[in-house]
Design brief:
The complex is a heterodimer of chains A (about 600) and B (about 240). Chain A is mainly β. Chain A is about 5% helix and about 50% strand. Chain A has 3 helices and 51 strands. In chain A, the strands form 13 sheets. Chain A has a 5-stranded mixed sheet, with no helix packed on it. In chain A, strands 11, 12, 14, 15 and 16 form a 5-stranded antiparallel sheet that branches. The longest helix of chain A is centred in the first third of the chain and has 17 residues. Chain A is elongated and about 185 Å long. The termini of chain A are far apart. Chain B has about 240 residues and is mostly beta strands. Chain B contains 2 helices and 11 strands, in the order αβαββββββββββ. Chain B has an 8-stranded antiparallel beta barrel. Chain B is elongated. The chains are: A mainly beta (about 600), B mainly beta (about 240).
């Protein structure tokens, strides 16, 4: 029985060890040859088999592998491995490391075979793609090219140059410089690099006008050629002007730039308020509301902006909006207007000197100026002009400022004296003056003394010369001599309208307007803080400004000779101590800062 | 859970052996025999796992074999009486699967080989006596399974192979019919039955907590349940 059990167990063990299931079926997949028709290898820098290299040239590999994976890329120059890449991308060749001349550039790409076989998937089967180029190297500095044109063309600032012909080209480097009058030399403005060799012109959108210079050189890697230069100059100034449309609105206009291509916008602002941008080049005006009083100005700032950084002459320009119109500026309280010759005469203090100017009544421009030492006086008709200084009294031609005659006050009484006060001249050619030796009225040009008295600063001569105020009395010219009339009491400065009307400004803040026939005097209180007080024969009115030190504005008063119709005008406060004053003259309110406005503007 | 079932099976086998020894063994009415036959295997989870494996490869792998029917061998020791017999059985069977691809550059094979050795008790009741005897019976078996994954690759001249092993234990119940003819001391029998399994986890080289799982992280089990057919011959010892 033991034999049986052993036999059965042995049979089972044999089965366990030797009769187990073993898979043995197989499957074979037929795979066709790979399709290589859509495979190619290029360099984006060239479409041919020739390359031109200089400095560090970057080359870009364009490999079309029809969906295959790239394993590695090897780049050889003259058989030497110079780059190994993981994919078909860009690489650089430093041509400076190789001699000038021809070389062989070879690129080998290893990629998946694309068969889809087991070996392809496992990466054990690869496709090798290789191509060669002839590469020429040139490491010499590039030549210069000529700038053939720089000028304005069809509203554009255009620069043109010759095309660079050699292959060692990296970029055209165009530099713009502007003339600095301060440094007296050209300074750099901007530099552009143009890498397209076929681009041979440039529109400078940063130029509107000014003196400039363009420099052009060829860049080839780290090497640069000699620059070519070309200068150009064209002046553009917006020259803004303004016109009052009504009492509130002002139209500001300016010139349009000729180089419209460069234009970006007009930037207009008033008195540092936020700017207003105008982007249409044809839109060269704007209406503003300056809200100013007479004597005040509203500064208009206009900047013409370009599309880029404008170096030359790109500063803003200004105009100042004022009420009224321009008048030659002066700085003193001595001014006279002669209607018969339509001329103004003003004295101006500047740079430690006085000067006398004659201003045309129509153009309001200075016709002539001359340095003077003392005060001036001109007759109402404008016929006689005198200037006194120290002991000299000199007559001038009002229309030429030529000296007519010179007198020495020493000749009057053989006394050494000099002018000490008011100088006046009348249409009958009498001169009144206050000297340290006394008050005089002189008949000119004979220099004959018509009147002599002790010194009194309240001396006044009527325009005709027939009436005189001196030493507290009224004097009438009678048969060549002055005869004393009624007393005139008080401390005052006399101003004659004519021989029968005397205006006295008392020092206690009153004025008196006296009819010398009837002796009736009307008194008006005007206050003590009064600047220049004057009578305008053209408008037949008295005008004076209040002195005000604590406000931006002050009051200018206009009073008729009846003393009843007082008008008040708000004007800009100006600095009286610097010779800045308002005057009523020639039916205008005149500001010594250089403005004038008709009285009718306020009282039509 | 499965451990308790396994312990229960062992206890059951012990009771049967004790009973056999007590009643008939020493009376000399017993036999030894061998059986050989063909078995089919359900292996549903392993077949699904094969499908997953197929798609995990970057090539067009084909499932060429998927756990087909295969030889089944066992030896048994039986104690006979007038009503039937009962006894012990020890057997072995195997099957496997194959994923395969080849082209001009090489081949790739992934084989899954399952070997199963079992041991248990069997018993049958005679339902007909005549020229041939007819029995109806059952088996309670404990399966010891081994699953081997063999991956082989050859690309051009390069070869590589890797093997991973998993083990599991199943409890199986089988019902069968048997027709037997006895001549002198030899009995030739034909059996046909069906086997059901309670499969255990496939442990990675017997390491606890490392199981075979699918892509959904579900455990994959080896279930060889199916038809069982066999031809056997027994030699009766004793009277």
């Amino acid at each position: 029985m033991g034999v049986i059990v052993q036999s059965l167990t042995a049979c089972l063990l044999v089965c366990i060890l030797g009769c187990n299931y073993e898979p043995d079926e197989t499957y074979y997949k037929e795979i066709s040859d790979p399709d290589l028709t859509n495979i190619s290898l290029y360099l984006s820098n060239t479409t041919s088999d020739t390359l031109y290299l200089f400095d560090k040239t970057t080359l870009n590999i364009d490999a079309f592998l029809d969906g295959r994976d790239t394993y590695s890329v090897y780049i050889y120059l003259d058989g030497n491995l110079i780059h190994t890449l993981g994919s078909a991308s860009e690489f650089a060749i430093d041509a400076g490391l190789f001699q000038n001349g021809a070389h062989i550039l070879r690129i080998e790409i290893y990629a998946s075979s694309g068969t889809g076989s087991l070996a392809d998937i496992a990466g054990a089967e690869q496709l090798k793609l290789a191509r060669e180029w002839v590469a020429y190297t040139d490491n010499t500095p590039p030549d210069a090219v000529e700038i053939t044109f720089a000028g304005i063309e069809e509203g554009k600032m255009k620069v043109r140059w010759q095309r660079y012909s050699k292959f060692n080209f990296g970029a055209y480097v165009l530099e713009k410089q502007y003339w600095s009058s301060g440094y007296n030399m050209y300074l750099g403005c901007w530099t552009k690099e143009i890498t397209n060799k076929n681009v041979t012109s440039w529109n400078d959108s940063t130029y509107l006008g000014g003196k400039i210079r363009y420099r052009l050189r060829i860049k080839a890697g780290v090497l640069s050629g000699q620059p070519a230069t070309r200068t150009f100059e064209y002046e553009y100034n917006p020259s803004p002007t303004f016109t009052w449309l009504d009492r509130e609105n002002v139209k500001v206009s300016w010139r349009k730039p000729r180089i419209t291509h460069s234009f970006k916008n007009y930037e207009v602002s008033m008195n540092f308020q936020p700017s207003h941008l105008i982007t249409a080049v044809e839109d060269t005006s704007i209406i503003v509301r300056p809200d100013i009083v007479y004597g005040e100005g509203a500064n208009i700032r206009i900047t013409v902006n370009t599309n880029g950084n404008r170096c030359e002459g790109g500063q803003p320009v200004y105009t100042r909006i004022v009420l009224g119109s321009e008048f030659a500026a002066f700085s003193d309280r001595e001014i006279a207007f002669c209607p018969d010759i339509n001329k103004y005469f003003t004295r101006t203090y500047a740079s430690d000197h006085y000067s006398l100017s004659r201003i045309d009544g129509t153009t309001r421009k200075v016709e002539q100026s001359m340095l003077i030492d003392g005060h001036f006086a001109i007759s109402a008709s404008g016929k006689y002009l005198y200037i006194s200084y120290d002991n000299v009294l000199r007559q001038y031609d009002p229309l030429t400022f030529a000296v007519i005659k010179t007198h020495n006050l020493y000749e009057l009484d053989d006394v050494h004296t000099s002018v000490a006060g008011r100088l006046m001249v009348s249409d009958n050619h009498f001169v009144s003056l206050v000297t340290h030796n006394g008050n005089y009225v002189l008949q000119m040009p004979s220099f004959e003394v018509v009147y002599r008295d002790v010194k009194d600063n309240s001396m006044g001569l009527s325009p005709s010369g027939n009436t005189l105020v001196s030493n507290g009395k009224l004097w009438r010219l009678d048969a060549g001599t002055y005869t004393a009339g009624p007393d005139l009491t008080g401390s005052f400065t006399p101003i004659f309208k004519d021989d029968n009307t005397l205006i006295r400004r008392f020092y206690d803040g009153k004025i008196g307007i006296q009819d010398l026939e009837t002796q009736i005097e009307k008194t008006v209180v005007i206050g003590e803080n009064i600047d220049v007080f004057g009578y305008d024969p053209v408008s037949d009115k008295i005008g004076y400004a209040e002195e005000s030190y604590y406000s931006d504005t002050t009051k200018f008063h206009v009073l008729d000779l009846e003393g009843s119709d007082l008008k008040t005008i708000t004007v800009k406060q100006i600095d009286n101590h610097r010779g800045q004053h308002y005057f009523l003259l020639n039916n205008q309110i005149l500001c010594s800062l250089g403005y004038t406005i008709p009285l009718s503007y306020y009282y039509p | 859970m499965f451990s308790r079932i396994h312990y229960s099976a062992v206890v059951l086998l012990s009771l049967v052996l004790t009973s056999a020894a007590d009643a008939q063994f020493f009376t000399g009415n017993y036999s030894f025999g061998v059986n050989a036959g063909y078995s089919t295997f359900a292996m549903a989870q392993l077949k699904e796992f094969q499908e997953q494996l197929k798609h995990d490869y970057p090539v067009d792998m084909q499932i060429l074999e998927s756990f087909p029917a295969y030889w089944n061998y066992n030896v048994s020791f039986l104690i006979h009486n007038n009503k039937g017999y009962y006894g012990l059985a020890l057997g072995h069977t195997s099957t496997g699967g194959r994923l395969y691809y080849s082209d001009y550059s090489g081949h790739l094979a992934s084989d899954q080989i399952a070997t199963m050795t079992y041991f248990g008790v069997t018993g049958a009741k005679k339902i007909h006596s005549g020229v041939v005897d007819v029995y109806v019976g059952g088996k309670n078996l404990l399966y010891f399974n081994k699953l081997k994954f063999v991956s082989a690759q050859k690309i051009y001249d390069e070869n590589s192979i890797s093997v991973e092993r998993f083990n599991s234990t199943n409890i199986a119940l089988q019902g069968y019919f048997e027709v037997a003819k006895t001549v002198r001391k030899f009995t030739v029998s034909l059996q046909a039955g069906f086997e059901l399994h309670v499969p255990g986890d496939l442990l990675y080289q017997n390491k606890k907590d490392y199981y075979l799982v699918n892509n959904s992280n579900d455990k994959v089990k080896l279930n060889p349940g199916g038809l069982r057919t066999s031809v056997g011959i027994h030699y009766k010892v004793g009277k």
